[in-house]
Design a protein that fits this description.
Helix content is 37%, strand content 30%. It is α+β, with helices and mostly antiparallel strands and 393 residues long. It has a domain of 259 residues: FAD/NAD(P)-binding domain (3-Layer(bba) Sandwich), CATH 3.50.50.60. Helix 1 packs parallel to helix 6, helix 1 packs parallel to helix 9 and helix 11 packs across helix 12. The protein is globular and about 65 Å long. It binds flavin-adenine dinucleotide (FAD) and 3,4-dihydroxybenzoic acid. 3,4-dihydroxybenzoic acid binds next to strand 14.
Length: 393
């Protein structure tokens, strides 16, 4: 069996694993990244689109922001739309001039993969980590299955950036890990369409038929979502039905219809909240979706993943270069405070915007929350600050 050695073994080439590798590489700390999927697959996976103010800075500071600065779309507000009327939340006015950047997760991943290959630091695709051992001993080891055969890697630390229900969190003894979970009675059907967006800012919409979100990727590509029942499948949603329903839910007097074009990607995503506690076990550190999941309504998942990586990077540098344990010892607690704030915000946004068909009490509460969010300056300020820069608060 092939044997390798590194300081930090990183499992997963999503935004979390790739960003950690980039930051460590710039600091002269060795790492190897293992990703079970192909390069094409991870670079095409359409997911997040909204990047917080402080996370934009992190990407720039990591030397990975060049294309994002050129192509990313800076937004200063969002719309909350309900009962077919739109209300603008002036994000930048309410949040100390800060803004969000709309730039697809797939683009962030492409930029980081390009930098990794450019630096010559190791990144293996089609390489699945199958076991992690020695987490409470002097050295950890991981087993990796690759097309060329199995590889055994010895390392000082393992970064579990392997997404939901991955091998990293499964390697923590169940007696040491607590999982807190909530599922929601709706999913999101997301599409990417070759159509110039009919809106300049993102629109979060609550309609009696369900949730809708109008987002975008570029001046010629729209990204739209519909709240659907969790048991619905893509077969039940023809292109015609998707556009018709988007038009019904999003229509206002000023914007009677969305702009349509060929649908180039579609998927249905279940909505849930998960927090794994703690985020460290011996030499293993969980970061990103491996540690927690938020429902997508607050656009927090990728931001939270990169926020963890910012902490983990500082902690590993302190330990590896100065033999200072303080930050690795506080890593889990520091992250979890931020994680629970993001869980709260995502839960609030989710529950305010997804009507329940058989619960008029819940629907009354949702409308009251929406009215408060637009009429109370205090409420809209909290929403704006959380939306724009929760990971730096
Ligand atoms: P992932 O991106 O899941 O990466 C984990 C990687 O690990 C994967 O590539 C996986 O293949 C690999 N892996 C798993 N197991 C192994 C193994 N054993 N060996 C090797 N590799 C392994 N977030 C936002 O911030 N803003 C948004 O606007 C937003 N919108 C979203 C919309 C949708 C529809 C969805 C589904 C998500 C959205 N998110 C959003 C969430 C965001 O996409 C995730 O939180 C983000 O991908 C987390 O990054 P990660 O690196 O932690 O995990
Ligand atoms: C997008 C995704 C989200 O979850 C969100 O809240 C806003 C925008 C997007 O994919 O553009």
């Amino acid at each position: 069996m092939k044997e390798l050695r590194t300081q930090v073994a990183i499992i997963g080439a999503g935004p979390a694993g790739l960003m950690l590798g980039q930051l460590l590489q710039r600091e002269g700390i060795d790492s190897i990244i293992f990703e079970r999927r192909s390069r094409e697959y991870v670079e095409r996976r359409v997911r997040a689109g909204v990047i917080e103010h402080g996370i934009v800075q992190l990407i720039n500071d990591a030397g990975a922001g060049e294309r994002m600065q050129r192509e990313g779309l800076v937004h200063h507000g969002i719309e909350l739309r309900f009962d077919n009327v739109s209300h603008r939340i002036a994000l930048s006015d309410l949040a100390d001039g800060k803004s969000i950047t709309v730039y697809g997760q797939a683009e962030v991943v492409k930029d980081l993969v390009g930098l990794r290959y450019g630096s010559g630091a190791p990144l293996y695709f089609d390489a699945e980590v199958t076991a992690i051992e020695g987490l409470t001993s002097d050295e950890a080891t991981i087993q990796v299955s690759t097309p060329e055969g199995d590889v055994r890697v010895s390392c000082q630390y393992v970064a579990g950036c392997d997404g939901t229900f991955g091998v990293a969190s499964r390697s923590i003894p169940t007696s040491e890990l607590r999982r807190h979970e909530r599922t929601y009675p709706y999913s999101w059907l997301g599409i990417l369409a070759e159509a110039a967006p009919a809106t300049e800012e993102l629109i979060y919409c609550r309609h009696q038929n369900g949730f809708a979100l109008y987002s975008l990727r570029s001046p010629s590509v729209s990204r739209l979502y519909l709240g659907v029942r969790p048991d619905e499948t893509l077969d039940e949603w023809s292109d015609e039905r998707i556009w018709a329903e988007l038009n019904v839910r999003l229509a206002t007097e000023e914007m009677p219809s969305v702009s349509q074009g060929p649908i180039i990607e579609r998927s249905i995503t279940a909505m849930r909240s998960i927090v794994n506690e703690p985020m460290r076990y011996g030499r293993l550190f969980l970061a990103g979706d491996a540690a927690h999941i938020v429902p997508p309504t607050g656009a927090k998942g990728m931001n939270l993943a990169l926020g963890d990586v910012r902490e983990l990077f500082s902690a590993l540098v302190a330990k590896i270069t100065h033999n200072d344990d303080r930050l690795i010892d506080s890593y889990s607690q520091t992250c979890l405070e931020r994680v629970w704030r993001a869980e709260e915000f995502s839960y609030y946004m989710t529950q305010m915007l997804h009507p329940l068909f058989d619960d008029e009490f819940e629907n009354g509460v949702q409308r009251a929350r929406l009215r408060q969010a637009i009429t109370s300056r205090e409420a809209s300020t909290v929403l704006a600050r959380n939306y724009v820069d929760l990971n730096s608060l």
